[in-house]
Design a protein that fits this description.
This protein is an alpha+beta fold and 384 residues long. The chain contains 13 helices and 7 strands. Helix 5 runs antiparallel to helix 6, helix 9 runs antiparallel to helix 10 and helix 11 runs antiparallel to helix 12.
């Protein structure tokens, strides 16, 4: 029995690596890989189920050569750790795996941090008495490490994906993890097994070998999000100044900007208040990505604008408080959000100015006596 640790590759679903179990029996010509990371991407409502936390993954089995070929084609590394187990332990482990991959037993409710291909292997080895009991397989723990920090080491070369994940993660992702909690990524389990001893003494890993080495296919170079958003902020500021000088309404800017921020807020709100993934809860990014911005985007240009006036006042006040308390908010907010907040503040101030001027002009129009031409029109309209 071996634990296979597969490295990351370019496709998004491979970025954190993978863990599987290999069973070799040359006498009976068995060489099979048990994979707890199987899912159906085409399943109805896949994205919402993944976000909500009721997506099922399942255990599958495939010939080792097929498993190896599929990962080698993606350029992924494969490292094998052969476990020092007795014949009875191997038999029990094999029987458990075979029972677990039956259609009625193979599914489990996926959780990215607490129930995935890594934690399933840890639970399996612990339940079968392979090595220490549950919770005693020790990671190469990093003092004070958090979920966000653990993921960050894999995402440094993918700044846009890193931004998206950091926007979705709530304050729970910034809490310190126990040694057990840190084993949710394949590489962490690999290091943990390498430093685990058996209850009877001796190392759990008898030998390890590299089956395939990673092939660097080259990452696509992209502009970092912060730079892009600061450029957008400068463009929006320039367009706003032009609107003031030329008298443009430029409603499309606000519909696009507030609509995008509102839609992002709705997605984050689902994760924070509805999702079963606990690290998404208590998301302080909702202080600036307000779901109500969607209503504002749809309400711009309507006749009654008094409610928008109060809304933009509150938005400016809220954003000022958020920026002033940025360093003390109990969550690591992405720096790329600052230019977005500044852009929303600029447009809120512009809309507030435009609405205030419009309301003032309408009040003056009501107080001004009608002209001679307007009197003639009124007489004409009332003449039988």
């Amino acid at each position: 029995v071996s634990v296979l640790t597969v490295g990351p590759a370019n496709p998004a679903y491979t970025m954190f690596g993978h863990t599987a179990i290999r069973l070799e029996d040359p006498l009976n010509r068995i060489d099979r890989v048990y994979n707890y990371g199987t899912f159906d991407f085409k399943a109805p409502g896949f994205f919402f189920k993944f976000l909500y936390g009721n997506l099922d993954y399942y255990l599958s089995a495939a010939p080792f050569e097929q498993f190896k070929q599929a990962n080698v084609e993606l350029g992924r590394s494969i490292v094998s750790q052969s476990l020092d187990l007795s014949r009875s332990q191997i038999n029990e482990l094999t029987q458990t795996l075979e029972r677990s991959r039956k259609p009625e037993n193979r599914s489990y409710r996926y959780r990215f941090f607490s129930q995935n291909c890594v934690t399933q292997v840890v639970d399996l080895l612990s339940a079968e008495g392979v090595g220490p009991p549950t919770g005693q397989i020790q990671a190469m723990a990093i003092s004070g490490a958090t979920y966000r920090q653990k993921l960050g080491t894999y995402l440094n070369s993918r700044p846009w994906m890193q931004l998206g994940i950091n926007l979705m993660l709530g304050s729970g992702a910034d809490q310190r993890l126990s040694n057990e909690q840190q084993i949710f990524l394949p590489n962490a389990l690999h290091l943990a097994l390498a430093n685990t001893t058996k209850a009877s003494g001796g190392w759990l890993v008898a030998s390890d070998k590299t089956i395939a080495t990673a092939i660097n296919r080259g990452a696509h170079s992209t502009l970092p999000p912060s730079l892009v958003f600061w450029m957008i902020y400068l463009l929006i500021t320039a367009l706003t100044i032009t609107s003031l000088l030329q008298g443009w309404q430029s409603l499309w800017i606000d519909r696009l900007l507030f609509g995008a921020a509102g839609l992002l807020g709705v997605i984050m709100a689902i994760g924070a208040f509805i999702s079963l993934h606990e690290p998404l809860h208590n998301n302080w990014n909702l202080l600036w990505a307000l779901p109500t911005h969607l209503l504002v985007a749809g309400g711009l240009g309507v006749a009654n604008t008094k409610w928008l006036r109060y809304y933009f006042w509150l938005t400016l006040l809220l954003y000022t408080v958020v920026l002033a308390s940025w360093a003390v908010i109990p969550q690591q907010l992405p720096a790329a959000a600052i230019p977005l907040i500044c852009s929303l503040m600029v447009r809120s101030a512009y809309r507030l100015f435009d609405i205030t001027i419009g309301l003032r002009e309408r009040r003056l129009r009501r107080k001004r006596p009608p002209s001679a031409t307007e009197n003639d029109k009124l007489l004409t309209a009332t003449r039988p």
